[in-house]
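Team,

Forwarding the record for the chain on the shared tracking sheet. I've put the sequence and predicted structure together so nobody has to dig through attachments.
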Amino acid sequence: MRVNKKKHTKAFSALLLFLSLVVFWLILSSHVAWEVVIVGMAASCIVVLYNLNLLFDETERTRLSFKGAWAFCVICYRVVIQIVKANFQLVKIILGKRLTIDPKFGEIPQPLTKALNQSLYANAITLTPGTLSIDVDQDRIIVHALKPEYLEELKDGPLEQAFVAYERSDK
């Protein structure tokens, strides 16, 4: 009997996501009781079933590797650093004697190919105060920034480099 490898990897990925969500649920729960576990398992199951076709497309699947895990840790580190840095910039603007903002819309190139990575990158841009991702396409991201230099910092900046390295680690 021959096992269909695509179904096997899809089932394994779904199981891995389910278990990750249940563990995350339990971590966030204030106490562990059988009711909490059952609700967490049900919610995790619904999320996995709802996103099965979305998250487990062959072109979107990420291979598990040490290099990929390290690249993801670098992304998390860079996002936190950018958020802290941007918060200090905003505090300086808000507490300054003059309001020194020059709001601007601009385009930055989309360096990523996978839709999930593009979405995560756009969300990371939005998480950094002073910038907001408005639209994401295959080749560009439209961003609103409080200052034009915030747009320039995004182009080939540390955040973009971390996401590109993460996507490259998956190939």
